[in-house]
Write a structure and sequence with these properties.
The complex is a heterodimer of chains A (186) and B (215). Chain A is mainly alpha-helical and 186 residues long. Chain A has helices at residues 3-14, 18-40, 44-60, 71-90, 93-108, 119-124, 128-139, 144-151, 155-177. The chains are: A mainly alpha (186), B mainly alpha (215).
Chain lengths: 186, 215
């Protein structure tokens, strides 16, 4: 797919076309995989994590895309930032330990059934505040600032919480997949 | 693990996104910071006693144009640098240099026309010792807000983005301070006002990498 085609998908996604948005992310995934594989070398698992983090950031930050600019430099700037950020973090033992705890928690909650793949069921497994914020921002459509006000926390905290909940969802879905192969309901 | 599943989840969340998010976010946060800075000034320092008369003179507005130019340059740069692929827009450093050059030119002319033993007084005014520091202090709430706004977006050049946030905060803070400060010599303004505003930019650049990191 060319830059022009990718950008057209991005613009359609920004206009609310979910199918175009999915096609865009699906088209970007192998490009990001190649980008990180070249730079991470011997660690394909970590590279795939970065692919997902970058896709997530592309999704969460898509409002920051300047529609007059080309798309791929924007995407690769996020990928580069995520790569540098992961290097910075991997320099810290503490963070690695935390990541391991995350994985353990994910595995513990992973004894899955097909039903768990339903998004609402997945949502119900998140901590209450994450559920409430996901509902307010992603479903009810409040801005981060409005959600922050409603819950009496900072905008930064809303962001972090949302990011965490998306990551947690990602982990739940991720582990569930190995135990079943049902379809996500539309 | 299953990138496809993640994509499916994210695609469900593909609501329409309005254009202009960066501008709106920066404007909201900066506006709040500006109000806080004005309140801080009101609580701390009296307005210059000759403010009504000063409003009719050119020097007050020339000074305001100079400080607002710094803010404008910061805002223009920040509007780009708050995005992942943002760079300092071409022409923006030139605009800043032009403003400084004009004010420096006026300062040189002013000093040249003044009697030699009055030149130091023109340069130092009555408040050279406190001017830059007060501008930095008044920029405190503004800087917090411009940095918070930037962090809520997605900068990737953190020191540069921090400097732009600092310049925006410093330029507005100096404009606020001008409501109190009666100094009018270009030699004073080009030295002490610029020092205050550039200090804000330097603070922003220093704290940027620590504060602006987003996940």
């Amino acid at each position: 797919m060319t830059e022009a085609e990718l950008k057209a998908l991005m613009l359609a996604g920004l206009a609310g076309d979910a199918a175009a948005h999915a096609r865009l992310l699906a088209a970007l995934a192998p490009r990001l995989r190649a980008y990180f594989a070249r730079r991470m070398g011997a660690n394909p698992g970590a590279a795939e994590d970065l692919v997902q983090e970058t896709l997530l950031a592309i999704h969460l930050k898509r409002g920051l895309f300047d529609r007059d600019q080309p798309l791929m430099p924007w995407v690769l700037a996020i990928a580069r930032y995520k790569l540098v950020d992961s290097w910075r973090r991997s320099g810290r033992r503490k963070m690695e330990a935390l990541d391991e705890v995350d994985e353990l928690v994910a595995e513990e909650t992973a004894d899955g059934t097909m039903a768990r793949r339903d998004l609402r069921v997945l949502l119900a497994r998140l901590p209450r505040r994450q559920q409430a914020l996901l509902h307010d921002v992603r479903i009810e459509g409040l801005s981060m600032a409005e959600a922050a006000e409603r819950h009496g926390i900072s905008v930064a905290a809303v962001k972090v919480t949302l990011h965490r909940s998306l990551k947690a969802l990602q982990a739940l879905v991720g582990v569930t997949r190995s135990t079943s192969d049902g379809e996500i309901e539309p | 693990m299953n990138t496809d599943e993640l994509i499916a989840i994210l695609a469900r969340d593909a609501r329409p996104v309005r254009d202009g998010l960066v501008q709106r976010r920066l404007a909201t946060f900066t506006g709040a910071g500006l109000c806080a800075s004005l309140l801080l000034l009101l609580a701390w320092l009296p307005p210059r006693p000759d403010l009504p008369q000063a409003l009719h003179g050119t020097i007050f507005w020339a000074k305001g144009a100079y400080t607002l130019c710094f803010a404008l340059v910061g805002a223009r740069a920040l509007e780009r640098l708050a995005r992942p692929d943002g760079r300092v827009p071409p022409g923006v450093p030139g605009l800043l240099a032009l403003a400084v050059a004009l004010m420096a030119g006026a300062a040189v002319i002013g000093l040249a026309r003044a009697a030699p033993d009055l030149r130091i007084a023109l340069w130092l005014g009555d408040s050279a010792r406190v001017c830059s520091l007060r501008i930095v202090a008044l920029a405190g709430p503004l800087l917090l807000m411009t940095l918070a706004a930037t962090r809520s977006l997605a900068p990737t050049r953190l020191p540069t983005a921090g400097a732009a946030a600092g310049l925006l905060a410093g330029g507005l803070s100096a404009s606020v301070y001008a409501l109190h400060c009666p100094e009018s010599a270009p030699a004073f303004i080009v030295c002490w006002y610029s020092l205050g505003m550039l200090s804000c930019a330097a603070i922003g650049a220093l704290v940027g990498p620590a504060i602006l990191r987003w996940r």
